[in-house]
């Protein structure tokens, strides 16, 4: 498994992962294309590859001292093999390198698996956004400190 920056040739695979994993909340192929090709300057796309096939992706926005994990998705056939952890670790490294001292994200309140995943990786709840998703589900805002002053460890 390899985690790397996404390239233009990855747009179709990332857009397919969006549709398959995020349903009605998926980003369009056009938006994915803008992000992957650099039209959105604060946004970085990472992909996880297994045997040359893109099977996961993460999207992060980093502005000054705040990083936001906007997306993380892994093909169902490759889940529970550490790909999401590898993608998250790569986002943390990139955020720290860019000077961010905290990483934020939103997760659906009904996504127990994701909530457990992030809790095990030192994220804590800091807020809730009622009716955030298209279907009316609340988003739980999570934060992980990455540096001094934001609750990060060592």
UniProtKB/TrEMBL annotation:
Work out whether the entry's keyword set contains Cytoplasm. yes
Q: Which residues form the signal peptide?
A: none
Does the record carry Protein transport as a key word?
A: no
User: Where is it mainly found?
Assistant: cytoplasm
Q: Which reaction does it catalyse?
A: N-terminal L-alanyl-[ribosomal protein bS18] + acetyl-CoA = N-terminal N(alpha)-acetyl-L-alanyl-[ribosomal protein bS18] + CoA + H(+)
Which subcellular locations apply to this protein? Cytoplasm
Q: Where is the N-acetyltransferase domain?
A: 1-147
Q: Which PROSITE patterns match?
A: GNAT
A single MF term (Gene Ontology):
protein-N-terminal-alanine acetyltransferase activity
Q: Which superkingdom is the protein from?
A: Bacteria
Q: Which UniProt keywords apply?
A: Acyltransferase, Cytoplasm, Transferase
Q: Which GO terms describe its cellular component?
A: cytoplasm
Any idea of its EC number? Answer: 2.3.1.266
State the Gene3D superfamilies in the record.
Answer: 3.40.630.30
**Function description:** Acetylates the N-terminal alanine of ribosomal protein bS18.
Task: Identify its protein family.
Answer: Belongs to the acetyltransferase family. RimI subfamily.
| PANTHER family attached to this UniProt entry | AMINOALKYLPHOSPHONATE N-ACETYLTRANSFERASE-RELATED-RELATED (PTHR43877)
Q: Which NCBIfam families match?
A: rimI
Record-given protein name: [Ribosomal protein bS18]-alanine N-acetyltransferase
Q: Which organism is it from?
A: Nocardioides soli
